Amino acid sequence: MKNVRAHANTIGVITLSVVILVLGAIDLFRPGGLRFSDLTGRVVTTDTMIRIGILTIVVVGLNLLMGYAGQISLGQAGFYALGAYASAILTTLSTRHGILVGVADQWWWPWLAIVIGMGFTGGFAYLVGRPIFRLKGNYLAMATLGMGIIIYILAGQFPEITGGYDGLTGIPRLHIGTFKLWPMQRYYFLVWGAAIAVIVLALNIVNSRTGRAWRAVHSSEIAAGASGVDIERSKLRALVISAVFASLAGSLYAHFQSAVSPNPFSFRASVQLVVMAAVGGLASIWGAPFGVAFVFVVRDLLRSRLEDVLHVRGSGYELIVYGVILVLIMIFLPEGLTAGGAKLLRKRWRSAAAGDP
């Protein structure tokens, strides 16, 4: 069974990589004048695909924390913000404050800033996680919610450091030597390369001793403790890894936008991340890209097509239809699109093989 699962994951990684390469090549080389957005009726563009890739990294970490370790988090956008602001602040030191002139202008400095941001965010998650994980259930959810809100508020309170609610601008594009990872058709490959690497790493973690410990803690902390699992360490490890992934995504977002402000990291963003994880399947690494893509595509389709179908204006109807779709998914596919959909397909295949009508 383990070999079958590993084989399926390998096929999944190869398939996803090929699809990403093909779609990226179409938009980069434009054969016959064709662009990727032309294949989707301009609903899904390269910009959309980059955002899906960035949030996939965040949701993979959230799946590890909630789906495997069983720890509720409503503050994941806070870790996402820490990564974005770490890169933004460190890469604009020379232009805004005249600090590290000659160093901050080097092509490798933004890459180092990303690593520093990941280290800082992971350390912050470790320090915050120690007291937070003494709580359980709704109290844990409220604690993580409060943490995310605090980070959001602090991001807007120190204009000399974070730019306040207006945010920071002038964040440089990423380079490798003299090669600039821009326009966005080039950045697309960087983001999805990072997303696929995170997926592969997460799949290996899930199938390792650490992943088995998380599942044991999720099932029963009492039984896990009796089996010799260090419960506190397992929870903290899940939180730190998910925070590091979110920080990486935040840094990629900052360099993509070339600007950051508090708005994308609000409580609403944290809820949206949880929705994406739940739609794709909390206990599924593969659920992350499918959940993020589904939410993005459905949202954009509703925005662009609902007015033509219902002949109404305003965003209220869009939110109603969006909510109904999410409710239906949770009712009929409570395990998410990947796990629930796979079970449904297997059931139908077995019924067809048995000759059932």
Topology:
Blueprint: H1 2-29, H2 46-68, H3 76-91, H4 93-97, H5 109-132, H6 137-155, H7 159-162, E1 168-169, E2 175-176, E3 179-180, H8 184-206, H9 209-219, H10 221-226, H11 231-257, E4 259-260, H12 267-280, H13 287-310, H14 316-332, H15 336-354
Antiparallel strand pairs: 1-4, 2-3
Helix pairs in contact: 1-8, 2-8, 2-11, 2-12, 2-13, 3-5, 3-6, 3-11, 5-11, 9-11, 12-13, 12-15, 13-14
Describe the structure.
The two termini are 30 Å apart. The protein is mainly alpha-helical and 357 residues long. The strands form 2 sheets. Strands 1-4 form a two-stranded antiparallel ribbon. Helix content is 73%, strand content 2%. It has 15 helices and 4 strands. The chain is globular. α2 packs antiparallel against α11 and α12 runs parallel beside α15. The chain has one domain (2-354). The relative contact order is 0.15. The longest helix is centred in the N-terminal third of the chain and has 28 residues, at 2-29.
